[in-house]
Design goal:
The complex is a heterodimer of chains A (about 220) and B (about 375).
Chain A (H helix, E strand, L loop, with lengths): L2 H34 L5 H13 L2 H12 L6 H8 L7 H25 L3 H9 L4 H12 L1 H17 L2 H7 L9 H10 L3 H28 L1
Chain B lengths: L1 E9 L2 E9 L3 E5 L6 H9 L6 E6 L2 E5 L4 E2 L2 H4 L2 E3 L11 H6 L7 H14 L15 H13 L5 E5 L7 H17 L3 E6 L2 H7 L2 E6 L2 E7 H6 L4 H6 L5 E9 L3 E6 L2 E6 L13 E5 L5 E3 L16 E10 L3 E8 L12 E6 H6 L7 E6 L5 E3 L3
Parallel strand pairs in B: 3-9, 3-10, 7-8, 8-9
Antiparallel strand pairs in B: 1-2, 1-4, 4-5, 5-6, 10-11, 12-13, 12-15, 13-14, 15-21, 16-20, 17-18, 17-20, 18-19
The chains are: A mainly alpha (about 220), B alpha+beta (about 375).
Chain lengths: ~220, ~375
């Protein structure tokens, strides 16, 4: 395998793992909140999380630039303060992949949390557990199948992320060129052999993730 | 010891109840939607009442006037849910130990073993609760609730998830178990037999209110009103009109007959002639008069009635006869006026299957006048 392809593969794996971890940290509490609490702006939050699923990825990427770019709402003050900006770093690829994959975790996780029998949670309250302990000991363990399914989907989505990544992280060989971007570059520059190898690798990897996840999932 | 005063208003339904109980088994009985389960949820702190004062063994759980409302975690009471709500991801032993958190591990193990032994569940300790039968699951739920030694045990429809034969058998076991706790036990049921079997004290709910409360024998023997008598399933609750009322006797016109009842010694029912009045007589207190005995003994055969058995229902060891008085006009209870209960043997000796015309009598002491028509 050419060295550029190997680099792209390792970058893709690293970006997807980190994006999935970030989604787990943000998405599971978010799913719990959306499932359990009635608060002001809940509906808006729900729409916001779901938007990347329905918008073209380039549009999501555009919003991310507006938010995180060197002159962005958050990116501007950050640049002024530290002289560092996110776009065109490999972190930008992680952020783009995480945002695009988040709804694929939140939606099944939320449905699974909502389907846990509320009497089980009440039983834990009566037996002395505060809500956060009840969530950790009862609700989330019982919703684990939905959460794991969501994590697998999110990882697969992150691995294949293209449009938003291109917008926010660009396509810098060795730095932000993930496998999907490398495939695009190879095809558009006529390097058919390299494209073929990367397509095969990505297909195999995605299949492996799905198979392993379903084997693991059935033992949960 | 528990003192409960509760108010909670919903659109179209208001819960407004007050009752007290000692270290005994209290049954909240009433039709579905009467507010029994809601009361239990308020006791456990799972639902917040609009106004309440709940005191258990001197500890104030709720006092709206003082701004006190303990969360469920701080109440330390046992709750057995209707569907048991066992944690399906934990073993039987882990379920029972769930409420023992915060105690030293050795003590937790000792108490779990003790409770499992008490309930005959030792052999299931490591099992998944979903593998157990309904009755075993109920015992696990009970074990989980009593393991932390709660001041009060609440049970929501404890037997309703089981099928009938099992229900009778487990009812007895449950009764001896909860009586053995020597704690206040509050249980909710809409099943009359269950209420009688399990409870010492009955609190009758109807439409969000308590219509009567007291020791079960008292409620059963002295229903406070006609609606209570119907609620607790008493038979032969019928209506007539006052003819003459004095402090010890009351004469009632009913179905064209005159019947005489003993007036209540504590709260006599004194009303002007013509006032509607309800009374009841237990089906086993209506006596058939044998035709082979010559003369009627008037001191023995009071409230003499002539009529016909229109239907008889076989209960295995006894028969219920539906008796219609030989008088024109609609009968008191649909197609009949009285239910009469006779043992199987009497039914056969008197050949009631063939002979349908009978005279009956009711002792005046067996007629009970009910307030509130």
């Amino acid at each position: 395998m050419p060295e550029a392809a190997t680099t792209a593969l390792w970058l893709s794996v690293r970006v997807s793992v980190l994006a999935t971890l970030a989604d787990a940290l943000v998405g599971i509490p978010l799913a719990y909140l959306l499932a359990k609490r009635r608060f002001w702006g809940r509906q808006a939050l729900d729409v916001l999380v779901t938007l990347p699923l329905v918008l073209p990825p380039t549009v999501t990427g555009y919003y991310l630039i507006v938010l995180l770019g060197r002159r962005g709402w958050l990116g501007g003050p950050l640049y002024a303060l530290t002289g560092w900006s996110l776009p065109f770093t490999w972190y930008a690829a992680v952020v783009a992949a995480a945002v695009m994959a988040l709804p694929l975790l939140v939606r099944p996780a939320r449905a699974a949390i909502e389907s846990v029998n509320p009497d089980l949670e009440r039983a834990a309250f009566v037996l002395g557990r505060p809500e956060w302990r009840t969530a950790l000991e009862v609700t989330l363990p019982l919703a684990r199948r939905g959460i794991v399914a969501g994590l697998v989907l999110a990882f697969a989505r992150a691995l294949g992320e293209f449009g938003a990544t291109l917008m926010l992280a660009g396509n810098i060989p060795g730095r932000t060129t993930t496998v999907p971007l490398a495939i695009y570059t190879a095809v558009s520059t006529g390097e058919a052999a390299e494209a073929r190898v990367l397509v095969l690798v990505l297909t195999t990897l995605s299949c492996a993730v799905v198979v392993l996840a379903s084997r693991w999932g059935s033992r949960l | 010891m528990i003192e409960v005063t509760l108010q909670k208003v919903f659109p179209g339904f208001t819960l407004d109840v007050a009752w007290v109980a000692g270290d005994e088994v209290v049954t909240l009985f009433g039709p579905s939607g009467a507010g029994k389960s809601l009361t239990l949820q308020c006791l456990a702190g799972l639902t917040r009442p609009d106004a309440a004062r709940i005191v258990v063994n001197g500890r104030v759980f709720d006092d709206t006037a003082e701004g006190v409302h303990l969360p469920p975690q701080a109440r330390r009471l046992g709750y057995v849910f209707q569907d048991y709500a066992l944690f399906p991801h934990l073993s039987v032993a882990e379920n029972v130990a769930f409420g023992l958190r915060g105690q030293p591990a050795a003590e937790r193990r000792r108490r779990t073993t003790e409770v499992l032994a008490q309930l005959g569940l030792e052999e299931f300790a490591a099992r998944d609760p979903r593998e157990l039968s309904g009755g075993q699951q109920q015992r696990v739920a009970l074990g989980r609730a009593i393991a932390p030694d709660p001041a009060v045990l609440l049970l929501d429809e404890p037997l309703s998830a089981l099928d009938a034969p099992l229900r009778r058998q487990l009812g007895g076991e449950l009764r001896s178990l909860i009586v053995g706790l020597r704690r206040t036990v509050v249980l909710v049921t809409h099943d009359l037999a269950e209420a009688y079997q399990l409870g010492d004290r009955l609190v009758l709910y109807e439409g969000g209110r308590v219509v009567q409360a007291g020791p079960k024998a008292e409620v059963l023997g002295r229903p406070a009103s006609e609606s209570v008598a119907r609620l607790i399933g008493l038979r032969n609750v019928v209506r007539g009109a006052v003819l003459k009322a004095s402090s010890d006797r009351i004469e009632i016109a009913w179905r064209g007959q005159t019947v005489e009842a003993v007036n209540s010694p504590t709260a006599p029912f004194i009303a002007a002639p013509g006032t509607p009045i309800a009374f009841m007589v237990r089906p086993e207190h209506v006596r058939l008069i044998r035709k082979d005995r010559a003369s009627l003994d008037p001191t023995h055969h009071m409230n003499f009635l002539r009529g016909e058995v229109v239907e008889s229902i076989d209960h295995g060891t006894s028969w219920t006869l539906l008796f219609r008085i030989a008088a024109p006009g609609p009968a008191s209870q649909g197609a009949y006026d009285l239910e009469i209960e006779v043992p199987h043997l009497v039914y056969e000796i008197l050949d009631i299957a063939r002979d349908r015309q009978w005279d009956v009598s009711m002792h005046r002491g067996a007629l009970q006048v009910l307030a509130g028509v």
